[in-house]
């Protein structure tokens, strides 16, 4: 079999002779590209315009000019909607190059991730933090890592962004329950404005909706350090163990008064039990100042059964199974906290 080289593309006589003692090097011109300031890229088709923004101000200006533009980093959500649901998005903006959206900062209250940070970077950063920090400060980080452990494959985690996961506002999101239960702080910006909001029960007002105005973008999320006397767990139940969409997800947090098992704060957040990520506020508010014992366990389970009811024709089906999961998740959290407290019998 003879290989025929096209003379129109190059002149073989210009090549340097191969030296078998030398390793081929990576082209220096390509290495220098990473230090070159990025410029805006723009592709216009008949139905879609795609823009790669190079600076934060450029992105904010584009959002002000095109409020309905979709921001795409990993394309793990928009790509599916375009391919399988035949949705059309006339304006797509990619913010993946912007330094502020890719930064990681270790602050006094937690670790802040730019909204474009891929989940693989979030995972690596939190693994390092768990190894270096005091155990009591990393309860929330371990909860995030537990969800990321079952979150898609490496290829998806390498491109899917933490901000995209939040703003997609999926009612069965694996991570939003964890962020809501932990009280993560979100920094939101637009042209001329900047605000920080806590991710709580008000952040998702309706199905696939968030508190962000059309011209606003999510700049960063701060995942907080846990405090002494604070315990956190995350749960997910799916048909398959790995790489599957959840039936029910949950993030749970309890903070005790110093030196006691008296509840100071309690957060129980669920995905898959409504058209958005929700917090069981009626149930948790009744438990403030109660002690972590079997009476609390019974009260919470009764409260959850009443508060997290599903209609028989609820989307996703498996209504009784999902309702049972909400109780079993809390029972598992209750036992986990007792074990961490070193108490098998809460009356001890």
Indicate the radius of gyration in whole angstroms: 24 Å
End-to-end separation in angstroms reads 82 Å
Give unreliable regions as ranges: 344-348
What structural class results from the helix and strand content? Answer: alpha+beta
Strand order of the largest sheet: 5-6-9-7-8
How many structural domains in the coordinates? 3
Descriptive report:
This protein is of the alpha+beta class and 348 residues long. It folds into three domains: 28-94, Uridine Diphospho-n-acetylenolpyruvylglucosamine Reductase, domain 2 (2-Layer Sandwich), CATH 3.30.43; 100-224, 2-Layer Sandwich (Uridine Diphospho-n-acetylenolpyruvylglucosamine Reductase, domain 3); 230-343, CO dehydrogenase flavoprotein, C-terminal domain (Enolase-like, domain 1, 2-Layer Sandwich), CATH 3.30.390. The chain is built from eleven helices and 13 strands. The strands form three sheets. Strands 5-6-9-7-8 form a five-stranded antiparallel sheet. The protein has a four-stranded mixed sheet with strand order 1-2-4-3, with no helix packed on it. A four-stranded antiparallel sheet has the order 10-11-12-13, sandwiched between helices. Strand 3 (70-71), helix 3 (78-84) and strand 4 form a beta-alpha-beta unit.
